[in-house]
Amino acid sequence: MSKIKVLINGACGKMGRGISAGIMAAVDMEIVAAVDVEDIGRDLGLLAGGEPNGLLVTADLPAAIRNSKPDVLVDFTGPNAVLNNLRVALPFSLPCVVGTTGLKEQDLAEAEALAVKHGTAVFFAPNFALGAVLMMRFAKDAARYFPNVEVIERHHDQKLDAPSGTALATLELISSERRQFTQGAAGEAESIAGARGGDFKGARVHSVRLPGYVATQEVVFGGDGQLLTIRHDAMSRDCFLPGVLLAIRKINSLKGLVVGLENLL
Description:
Elements: E1 4-9, H1 14-25, E2 29-35, H2 44-47, E3 57-58, H3 61-68, E4 72-75, H4 82-89, E5 96-98, H5 105-117, E6 121-124, H6 130-143, E7 148-155, H7 165-175, E8 198-200, E9 203-209, E10 215-223, E11 226-234, H8 241-250, E12 256-259
Parallel strand pairs: 1-2, 1-4, 2-3, 4-5, 5-6, 6-12, 7-9
Antiparallel strand pairs: 7-10, 8-9, 10-11
């Protein structure tokens, strides 16, 4: 059986290195190109914590696609780069698995239009951890009965977008079950701007950025005489790998834009 040929874009970041190591260990896939704007010319095997494999990092995405002829592109770059990367990759009819968060609705709409135009697929997941997907599903269910809710998400201090993509996806799911109203006292006032967090259709979201975290999210529901907390902790980036591998294996069965790991389970 031929292996799935993967191009890793953002190969030298923390997620890129971890995902690269996982793909190298998978028996049914191989990395044929590694692209990043940093560590150009370095060996990906070494960057991923293993033995040198002769696959050198390049910064030229179009050339990498043409030369390596991958079956799928995996993007873990940054919110300011990912849409341009899709504009490059999709005209090659190259399906894309995107783990980069920070995409806006108009970005996703453009990605979908490009995927449809070129007869391929874009799979986007705000979170590739199965536990996080379940946390979001449980939060949606709880919102039917506990409309007072606040989301507290905690990430490492190098994360660029806030709130996280997972928090936004969670709030969207909650809002589909929760009537829209503003929480808290009618006359509440912030002595420090932003102390009550961001407002999403009346619910509140708080973003913590500190060294030491990978990714943690709590969804706290309040009711008369009780609290319900649904929490997911990513202790290491290893928890994201099974979801990424699943998306790589299934991307060629998809068309257009597909959002959320739950759609592959």
